[in-house]
Amino acid sequence: MRKLMGAVLVAGLFGGTGLASAQSGPPPSGPGGVRSSTTTSSKWVRMISRKGGLTALVPPSGPVKRNLFSQDTPMGPLNVTTLDIGEGKFHYFIVYFDASGAVDAEKNAKTILEETVQGIVEQSRGKLADNRDMTLDGHPGVAFRLTSADGSSVLTFRAFVVGQRIYQFFVQTGSDTTNAPEIAKFLDSCALWSPKPGHFDRPSSPDEDIFYTTGDPGSGPPPPGRRR
Description:
The chain has helices at 2-14, 109-124, 181-189; strands at residues 20-24, 45-49, 54-58, 64-71, 78-87, 90-98, 127-136, 139-147, 153-162, 165-174, 191-192, 210-213. By secondary structure, it is α+β, with helices and mostly antiparallel strands. It is globular, with a radius of gyration of 17 Å. The relative contact order is 0.23.
């Protein structure tokens, strides 16, 4: 399964077959602590992805770029979503996709995670460090750090298997910012999310996905404004 799982990261970074793409800019200002498009605050805001079933803290200076692409594998096509947040020396990524029905991801989580690490290392030809197991709400995962072959950049990476879905959260930085607090701030904030009753009780379009809020991501009224 290494080609199935490990190749997704590289394809997500450099483009797949390009089913669709959209840029999710900051929503308009409004109640509930939602970020405005003209904010100059240095305070990070919480992003919610309804379709991804996830939430994370993101820097306020730039929009989240959402890309959808399809990747052919020996076990059938994978429909992959990437969320890309770039800011200065730091580039934050979220990638998720559902494993083919031919693969029981939960039962094969250990193999999927091991081959994800192996596939990324082989394709990047980078140097692996700090490889360890971890969990997300009890779901199995792995964390590691990868230095590029020329030593100029570092990838700090986490991946988790949640049912049939595989999540990848990672930050790309220069080698001089490997231990910057922004890396842990983003990765530690990445979490699974589902709406509480009444949180999204208004009609939604098929494209409605990403919201920003400075409040509790699981309570209160839905944030005004929407971005794909």
